[in-house]
Amino acid sequence: MPQVVVAPAPRGVAEAVTSPLIDARQKIYPRSVTGFFSKWRWGVVFLTQWIFYGLPWLQWGQRQAVLFDVDARRFYIFGLVLYPQDFIYLAGLLVIAALSLFLFTAVAGRLWCGFACPQTVYTEIFLWIERRIEGDRSARLRRDAAPMSGNKLARKSGKHLAWLLLALWTGFTFVGYFTPILELGAEFGALQLSSWELFWVFFYSFATYGNAGFLREQVCKHMCPYARFQSAMFDHDTLIVTYDEQRGEPRGARSRKANPGQLGLGVCVDCSLCVQVCPTGIDIRDGLQYECIGCGACVDVCASVMGKMGYARGTVRFSTQNAVLNGWSQAQSVRRVLRPRVLIYAAALLAIAATLVISLTLRVPFKVDVLRDRSAVVREVDGGWLENVYRLQLMNATESSQQFKLQVHGLPGIRLTSTELVPVGATQSRWVAVRVQVPADVGKSGSYPIQFEIEAVSGVGHVSEKSVFLLPRSIR
Questions:
Q1: Model-level pTM greater than 0.90?
Q2: Pairing label, strands 379-380, 385-396
């Protein structure tokens, strides 16, 4: 472990001290808990994993419903077929995700971390497996402290085997979004995976196994940058997990029949269950800490203890710092939600989401790129016409074959000598060489703007693309 060693002090000065730069990690054994927020957390676990594991198996016509075909450079999302040129939509989705995170954080703290973050979700699943095989918190503590035995070896081996199988299935599913999962399954069964497929299956499996099985809270506390900059998005009206010191302090143990007022105690019985259920091992009674992921486990267990003691619930609860300090009601706290920063985030999020939806709705389902063939100079052809050659890439983003009609405008007498109807297969792209000619006396030498008009015969859309026509210096 790295050490900081202070040099020996002169006589009469305090002795040198040695302190660790990094505290040794103590393994956390979270206690299982049931309650309102626990049910919501498991509901999100089931929803997210049903989507993640199930979506690659969903078929859409003759293909996988969601498939990011990197080799073919096509991305299928249900009825949408996107090309790399549609990167703007991915950028829009990333901006929406970021603004959503800012909005949720400003309103309810680390809501994402506590309920929907993949690290939290898979840690919950791995902990559930651990409890099913090794027992509850006390049983795991006793077993880890005991010497190795046949029972301990069998349970540990069974747990890790279950973790590895789940991690492997997770890695397989992840790659199934980039390679058709039915083909991937056949290749996996025949041991014929390509090198990159094999790498990503095992890399993602290893990441899931390591992060959810071993690192756990260390990812949230030290590796995730969100824990560090969340404070910049918090204010005193942000909904967070809070401990009501006015009700809870001074804390102390007592019998259920005892009157805390006569004993000079608050309602907190100092049972430490809020610490035992915390997945990051913090004590919420010490105030807001960056390690808190807002999962609500301490809220559930404290509500259970307060109910058993016959006290009003809410000693540990989701609230705001202003509400706790000022004794606000729930209605007063809710009214403070609509504050300027929240309204700004919400307005920006709504505007970008609406723009993205409108753009996708009005999107023409094919694209065209026009490149002037620089290897072919301007040349004079029969009849005294001057010719430029262009290469057009037609990308059909529909799932049916299309025929495209080509036209060109911009100069007097300009014409196409190539075919005017170009067939392109479903979700295919095709390069077409196009010869454009103008009369020799059309103008002086130089570069002139022209415009290609491409229209689908089926009527699915129309695209205009600009280019230039070069006239040689010999023109007078």
A1: no
A2: antiparallel
